[in-house]
Records
---
Amino acid sequence: MKHSKKNRGRAGRGNRRGFAAMGKKRQREIARMGGEAARRKYGPGFYEDIGRMGGEAVRDEYGPEFYEKIGRQGGKAVRDEYGQGFYEEIGREGGETVRDEYGPAYYSEIGKMGGETVRDEYGPEFYSEIGRLGGRSRRRQSGRSGTNPGQRGGAARRRSRTRG
């Protein structure tokens, strides 16, 4: 049904009644009261539960790749707005917070757990392989050629002299 100019209400916004006719501030107050009432009635986990169910519904409809895509887009938007240094700063602050809360030994603990997980998943030979690849890369960067199979590098040679 078409509204005539006579029925359009305030400022030409149509025939608004109830919640829609209220100002934004009053709408927020009422919404807040509704949220508080739901929390009192259903408990603090209510919003966690409905948030999780919503996230699962989105995942089921669009797949986990959807989250990867929007996460990348969000990361790029933050980088573009705040610069690459922003990530370096928040990473450093996060690391300092963890160190202050758990102590420096915590990093050794989680490093060991991570190493054991990798070993269990890929096998101990994996470390030999990545060590070889890393050594080759370092030699290429420094312009040195590889050592003979029986020859030890400088640091290993120095260590063996001090031990023996």
---
Amino acid sequence: MKNKERMLVMMEERKYKVADIAFAYNNEKLISLLMERGKAIKTLKFDDMRSLEAKMDEVKGEDTDGVPNFEHWTIPACAFVTFETDDAKEMALDLATAYTKLCDKPELVEDDKEREQIHEDFKLIGDHVFDAATVTDAPDPTDIIWENRHFTDKQILYRSLLVFAVCILLLVASFLTLLTIAQGQIRYAVTFPPVDCSNI
């Protein structure tokens, strides 16, 4: 694990520092209700605002997988770590890839104690480990639409295909409209040909 040793040395030398950590939570229901509440306040619909606040209190009391929603919302689902340099980010990604390779081929480390120590070093919160499946390259936190973060890749693909289909339909509709107008102009020109009035 040369990458890990190199990164530890560089972090000790303060060459690679974490600039910021932004946590994300599985609180899309709460965000949706807060957005609706904001719209109600904006349009001065205070009865709707109060009913939404009651709904928020109701949702807070519900359970998700046996855990109360309020507690579930306060546990980070993921973290966006921003390093001060791009090299640090690349080093972290390389480290995660190297650990994934080690998990796939445990024979790379012969000593059992050393292998156990490496697994211990790469443990994160809960059941997560510092591997390529957990640690991925991400956009800047300021570029993320946080209320849309809960959409899965399948849902994003479905929505993209839907948008693509609508664009194709609009293009076909505009083509047919232009074709109809052009045909109308041709029919008009045939029905009423231009006449030279000086010869009449």
---
Amino acid sequence: MKRYSEEKMKHLEFLQNIITRMNTNSFQIKTWSVTINAALLAVYASSGNITYLLIPILPTIIFWFLDTFYLQQERKFKGVYNEVAGLTGTEKRIFIRNFEMPIQKYTKKPYRFLDVFFSKTILLFYCSMVIILLPSWLFLSNQGKNLWQKGKCFIASIMEMM
């Protein structure tokens, strides 16, 4: 087990607090996204106006970008934490002084915005919302209503035959 100086321990503690804060922000963004979508779907259910199925897509995309930003920051601070703790390999080491937090040095593969934007966890969460809302709107729009009406007429004609 490594022994760290008091300064290094304090530096690691600061980094851990920042990482926790970024993680909390990301969780709160997901909570707000689900809450806003549920509220707008409840408005749709009470009004029947299909526009309320499209409106949540915009906040979902905005929250997707915001959540990606916080997750990107979290990953960068984890990179700094790993450097300070000495957990990275020697070929990838970045020199970090005590209490320095050089997140701008983390620009490669796992830290890039697009890598985070299309990461499995983010993509699964936000795409599932858009995938539920967009086809629902398409089905319930005029084409969906026409299909519904045709289906009702078909069922009514079958019922008349009986």
---
Amino acid sequence: MNKKESLFALVTITVILCMLLMAGCDNNTTAPPASQQNTPTGQAPQTNPTNNTQANDALKGLTQQAFDELTDILKTAQTYPVFDPSGPAYDIRAALSGKTWLTIPLGTNNQFTLGICTMMQEIGKKIGMDVKIWENQGEVSEWIQGVENAPLLGANIVDLVAGPNPYYMVAQIEYLQSLGIVVQASHFSDVVQDVDHVTTNAGAPYAEGGKLMADWVIHKGGADVNVVILTSDDVPSAKIMCDTIEAEFVKYAPNAKRVYTNIALIDWATKIEIETLTAVQRDKNLDYIIVLYDPMLQFVVPALEMAGVQDKVKCLGYNGTPFVIDWIREGKVEMTVGENLDWIAHAIVDTAGRHLSGLDVPKDTKIPLYIWSVENAKEAGIPAEYSTGYGDVYINGYNQMWMLDK
């Protein structure tokens, strides 16, 4: 990882320290014994008297039904995403043309959130909307300043992108709403979660990301896979991701060993490496380390290499961050669940457009996920780039849904 990527990853940690909500994964808690959990869905393994050993090796202790279901799920997630309309077609220009959109990202020094915002500016050019980006370094006080300055900037929509917590600016948000300004939270919570205090919410598929990571590990490692999950309870999406991961293990591999280790964001740089080393020393049979967010991998990978277990203990994450995709290509990481930033930007604009058109705003923003592995990592570019390798079917899809082709 070069100096630029290291700086970006460390900055990511710093600027998301303010994303504080209660979450539900206990520190270093081990899942309950199999006798206290639900049994896996499906029939008992079907044996072939003439080739029983070979069949069992292929299934790795999973039932045939479970193995087949997981195979189908992962195959779909490794296929180019298709466009699924979030609702009926409408004239987005009628809703947003001439409007001013103020986007306040987690931090303009965070390439993930800045990338979303700059792509929203390009969308604004297509529909006649002025998109302004509030420069900030991820401080709560800077987010509040952005919200307070919205009327002076002539904003009709204020969008809190991927981190600014509405909880810290309730009075300011209520004032904007009293002026008729739409306040939206975007990529802050899962699609099934509500966000208080805002006008609209454009959620992200965090739970689905957790599900895919668990499915990958179970499919690759089998019914008795041994895994550590590194989480950060102070990140809004952590609880629902942990809940979904656990549900997949209960469903498909209740006998798998899983240990959930909570590491606060402020401690990532000092504790993730230590916790990783402790995990591999404590359990010589460890197979996988799942991290909830890609930037955590910058500390996991060196620890595995330091312990000399990088070829035995595999790791994976969520976000599709370019440096992680590069590491996949180099064999240091096994998989990441990726998101297309341009697709996210379209979904965010669509949420506000539907609201201002008087249409129902569905909770599901229809942002797809795409699994990056050694099989397709080169498609993201060398070196990897954001929004590369996801296909472009969504562009025509949104143009038609927004009636831009008329």
